[in-house]
Design brief:
226 residues, alpha/beta, Rossmann fold, UDP N-Acetylglucosamine Acyltransferase, domain 1, 2 domains, 7-stranded parallel β-sheet, 6-stranded mixed β-sheet, 4 helices, 24 strands, globular
């Protein structure tokens, strides 16, 4: 595949390694470096590419000629990935997205920036996907559904038609949203949970029976907004 864009991957974790593989083999982006915040910089190279301090990234790689993807999972209900993405954008970098050539994304799907869609996802007509969304492998996103910003959907999740998923939310492996169900911002849906009715923001579903915990998701993960 023709490599049209130089890419810096923010992060050096397992997701960063996976992002490197996908961008290298199946995109128009050519990874040229990794970048980590100085406090977490533990090595100077990965896959033969340099790992540089994120705070000084623009000294090494010109924002006019390089893009950034923040390969960070759902830490702090996706807030860490959101923060690094925003910081890269503030430095002047364009944000990269990846859509697997083995994903099915219907032609009228609307998608924001800085998204990562793995293989075997089915995204049906009239779906809207916000900024900074990750769809890991093997999900079904039903028609007319809306996924807002900073969402992480793990694997083999079913989002039925006309559903809504609020900002910063996480959906665990094999979880299911029934038709016409909406869940608010900052929700955590545990593995195999089945959601049959609307849920407000800051809801923690922790069992296959979708039992609502007494503590909200923000409290459980000790999140304090600045």
């Amino acid at each position: 595949m023709n490599k049209e864009h130089k890419l810096v991957i923010a992060g050096d974790s397992a997701f960063a390694e996976i992002a490197y593989e996908y961008f290298t083999a199946d995109s128009a982006f050519e990874p040229v470096a990794f970048s980590v915040e100085a406090a977490f910089l533990k090595r100077d190279s990965l896959f033969g590419l340099p790992v540089v301090p994120f705070e000084e990234l623009e000294k090494f790689y010109d924002p006019a000629t390089h893009c950034v993807y923040a390969a960070i999972v759902y830490t702090q209900l996706n807030r860490l990935r959101r923060r690094i993405m925003a910081a890269a954008k503030a430095k002047g970098y364009s944000l990269a997205s990846y859509i697997s050539s083995n994903a099915f994304v219907w032609k009228n799907v609307r998608m924001g920036e800085h998204c990562f869609i793995f293989e075997d996802n089915t995204v049906q007509p009239f779906v809207t996907i916000g900024d900074n969304v990750v769809l890991w492998s093997g999900n079904h996103i039903g028609h007319h559904s809306t996924i807002k910003d900073n969402v992480f959907i793990s694997s083999h999740v079913v989002v039925s038609g006309y559903c809504g998923i609020g900002d910063n939310t996480f959906l665990g492996v094999n979880s299911t949203l029934a038709n016409n169900v909406s869940i608010g911002a900052d929700c955590w849906v545990g593995p195999s949970a089945t959601i049959m009715q609307d849920a407000p923001a800051d809801t923690l579903f922790k069992s296959p029976k979708a039992e609502v915990a007494t503590a909200g998701a923000r409290r459980f993960f000790r999140i304090r907004e600045s």
